[in-house]
Specification:
The protein has 184 residues and is of the alpha/beta class. The strands form two sheets. Strands 5-4-3-6-1-7-10-9 form an eight-stranded mixed sheet. The chain has a two-stranded antiparallel sheet with strand order 2-8. The chain starts with a strand and ends in a 7-residue tail after the last strand.
Length: 184
């Protein structure tokens, strides 16, 4: 089971404003069409999305389901989700430790998980369960917000795989986590 992150941050490391707003992302304000930046190829490589409850609730405000309708999505929560007929039946609640969640997903036949959401990413990183990270830095300083990274119990060594640049000044870097461990 492989777990990966594909996310954008402000230059100062925030993935959203304190209130969860994403209006600082290119294309979010409607002044320019959003550029693809490799997301389509990435999402085609995963077979399950693992998101936190807050990220799930934010996704519901997007005006359309952002994932393939046949893609499994696991929302980390201790509460049931409100039934929504507009969502695919592949959306389910999951709970437990990051290791337990990945072990169950693997038993269910999944092979590559997309881990998304600030606290969710932090928890899986701290557990040493992320193997790959693609981080796109947006040239804006927010000063405060929801951080991508948080406290860790041990250093995580990263191997730089490559960096690409996109207009208008976006910098995307890919890393392999050298000391990621198995979910078991």
């Amino acid at each position: 089971m492989r777990a990966s992150v594909f996310i954008a941050t402000s230059l100062d490391g925030f993935i959203a404003r304190t209130d969860g707003a994403l209006d600082w992302l290119p294309g979010e304000d409607g002044t320019e069409p959003p550029e693809e930046h490799g997301y389509e190829a990435f999402i085609a490589s995963v077979d399950v999305v693992v998101i936190g409850r807050g990220t799930y609730e934010k996704v519901l405000t997007f005006g359309g389901w952002p994932y393939r309708r046949d893609m499994a999505v696991r929302v980390l929560s201790t509460r049931n989700l409100q039934p929504r007929p507009d969502l695919p039946k592949t959306v389910e609640v999951a709970s437990g430790s990051p290791g337990d969640i990945l072990a169950k997903l693997e038993r269910d036949g999944f092979r590559h998980a997309y881990i998304d959401g600030g606290k969710t990413i932090q928890g899986f990183l701290d557990a040493g369960l992320i193997q790959r990270m693609i981080v796109t830095r947006i040239p804006v300083l927010l000063g405060s917000g929801i951080p991508l990274f948080g406290p860790l119990h041990a250093d995580l060594r990263l191997r730089h795989v490559g960096t690409k640049t996109f207009a208008p000044g976006l910098v995307q870097s890919e890393y392999e986590v050298e000391n990621a461990r198995s979910h078991a």
